Amino acid sequence: MHTELTTAIGTAVARVEKLTKSYGTGPGRVDALAGVSIGLERGRFTAIMGPSGSGKSTLMHMMAGLDSPSSGRVWLGDTDITALGDSQLTLLRRRRVGFVFQSFNLVPTLDILGNIRLPFELDGRRPSRDEAAWIDRLIDSLGLRDRLGHRPFELSGGQQQRVAIARALGTQPDLVFADEPTGNLDSRSGREVLSLLATASSEFGQSIAMVTHDPIAASYADRIVFLADGVVADDRPRSTPEQISSLMLALERHP
Amino acid sequence: MRPALSREQFPTILVAALSSSFGVALLEVTQALTLLVSRDDVTGSSHTVAALLSVLAVVFTAIAVYVAAVVTVNTIATIVAGRTRTIALYRLVGASSRTLRRSVAREGLAAGAVGSAIGAVVGAGVVAGGLAFAVRGRVIPALPYSPWHAVVVLPVVAVVLTTWLAAWIGSRRVLAVSPLEAISAAEERTLGETAARPARTATAITLFSLGTLLLVAGILLGLVSGLGVLVGLGGGILSFSGVVIGAQLVMPRALRLVAYAFGRSAAARLAGQNALRYPERSTRTTIGLVIGVTLVTMFAVAIGGFEAMVQAARAAQPETYQGIQPTLDATVAVFSVLTGYSALIAAVGLVATLSLSVLQRTRELGLLRALGFSARQVRFMIVVESAQLTSAAVLVGVVLGTGYGWAGAQSLLGSIAGAPGLIVPVLPVAVLATIAGAAAALTVGASLVPARRATRVSPVAALAIE
């Protein structure tokens, strides 16, 4: 079931076509991605799942312009980013993409407000009035109001992830990438972070792509793409953790 | 923990080699000069000259070795900070923190021994070569000179021991590493490393105030007697000790002041924050350079003051002050080289610390790249960081050096025949320009390699580093 056929180009916020990535050459060559074609719908929360080594992180890095593919193409909106040079990719990441990583998300020397505003500072501009109002709203809804002057190390892991979410949503990017955003959190903080991401998508129409291997995390998404051995193995609409778990187990058993 | 010398120890070896070659070379030159003056000892003063030369050699070697030790404490502390996770892992599997600290100190001892031995050979070689060259050019007569003196063992041993001690002091943080740091997320938790040390602060302020009072007393006494310089010297040593001990109060403020001058762009601001992130480390990184710049400036300003006074006095009594200019020029040159050497050692330390700390921030720089910091912005940030450290050190050094140099000239010559009493401090333009040029070169040199390395890593690879 390949969704690029069902996703019209106009509604895809990002898509990849026949994407491959290999490391090394000769007999020691490893194919992290062996021809992946998918599209992500605008305004939706998509989970990319798969066991370790399935190529899900590699796929995310390609889509976010952090790494370049061996062959194939990547579009963000209407931009073919495979053709872009380093400085254009830098601008693209700064303006059109947001990131939430598993850990080490925040710049240790900046306080919370400084971290949230960092993408604007990198652009050498102040947030516009609308953007400032939006950031204010994010700060309140993420419960960070009384933490703005703190440094990252003074916050719990869950709070740090909320700051990363505020920063990622602050620029209203085309697409937010979340790489195992709950991997370092206890289950309660993890659920909170996942609800926040789901809300950002359902209420504000934010497109989100989340890489995870946790079935519970994936159950918060509108759609789940399964990767195994560098190819798309399955593609499902919203599912329960139980359904996702059994699919994952099946993937592990019949590679 | 790592018995072999790793590449991280290269700065320590280099600094040890620099200071030991300096000490050995100075002693060799002293020996040669002593031989030279005793050959035609008509005035019978060769013993005094020899003693004076030895004192000078010891004083300047001590300064170089001290600066080298400060530099090494800092390098080792930076290395230890970068190894936190490895140390924690060793603690996790049962190594005691004392054993680990001892092994870091042993690495320092090994680096000090290797560096000091290299330095001894280089120092003796350079002097022997220089003498042979001078003899061949008939600048000096052939001397019954041999580079093998028992006395050159002293600086070599002193460098090994101080490097060992410096490594021991620099490895203090090993004790504070908890085994948990090996398994928890590697977030920065050592912010605010500086604990308030009231006793240290009090000592620093007392020494500085007392020294400043003595300096003023020396200047006033200098108006009536040349002996004022002795009082002033005591005051200078006391107050400068106060500055070095209390550097943690001075340097972060100077850094903050300098940071404002570099603008408010995101890159410049982050650079300023980085320089202030570990106040203790930045202080140690810069204090060596402060000492070097202070000494160079001090001698230059003192000589400038001499000249101004002598010129004023010469205008009043021309016959008394004939032919003094070449002597003054030569003195400036010799002292600039002697003190400049300590500044060089400090500069090596600054380069090493900055490179190491950039290397340790690979992951953070990867995050910035992922978030849209361009490679250029990252490079700019590292250059600014380096520029802030050197500027702060030069600023403080020039201010202190001007004060001490002026006080020295004033207290020594305030009472000479025809002197105008109090003079305005004279900042010699040539020396200031040299210091500024060297500082600029240092800034670029210290940041070029780490900046290139930092932007060569792809953001993905940088983020994956533990």
UniProtKB/TrEMBL annotation, chain A:
One family from Pfam that matches here is ABC_tran
Q: Which intervals hold domain ABC transporter?
A: 14-254
UniProt cross-references to InterPro entries, sorted A to Z: AAA+_ATPase (IPR003593), ABC_transporter-like_ATP-bd (IPR003439), ABC_transporter-like_CS (IPR017871), ABC_transpr_LolD-like (IPR015854), MacB-like_ATP-bd (IPR017911), P-loop_NTPase (IPR027417)
Recorded GO molecular functions are:
ATP binding; ATP hydrolysis activity; transmembrane transporter activity
A cellular-component GO term for this protein: plasma membrane
The record's annotation in PROSITE patterns points to:
ABC_TRANSPORTER_1, ABC_TRANSPORTER_2
Keyword terms of this UniProt record: ATP-binding, Nucleotide-binding, Transport
**Which CDD domains would you find in this protein's record?**
ABC_MJ0796_LolCDE_FtsE (cd03255)
Stretches assigned to coiled coil: none
Supply the name of the protein: ABC transporter ATP-binding protein
Q: Which organism is it from?
A: Galbitalea soli
Q: What is the lineage of its organism?
A: Bacteria, Bacillati, Actinomycetota, Actinomycetes, Micrococcales
UniProtKB/TrEMBL annotation, chain B:
Which regions span the lipid bilayer?
12-37, 49-82, 108-135, 147-169, 204-224, 230-250, 287-310, 330-359, 380-406, 426-449
GO cellular component term of the entry, any:
plasma membrane
A GO molecular-function term, please? transmembrane transporter activity
What is this entry's stated membrane topology? Multi-pass membrane protein
Record keywords, A-Z: Cell membrane, Membrane, Transmembrane, Transmembrane helix
- Ranges for domain ABC3 transporter permease C-terminal: 59-169, 341-459
Location of the protein in the cell: Cell membrane
Q: Does the keyword Transit peptide apply?
A: no
Q: Which domain of life is it from?
A: Bacteria
Signal sequence coordinates: none
The UniProt entry's coiled-coil ranges are none
The family classification in the record reads: Belongs to the ABC-4 integral membrane protein family.
Q: Return the protein name.
A: ABC transporter permease
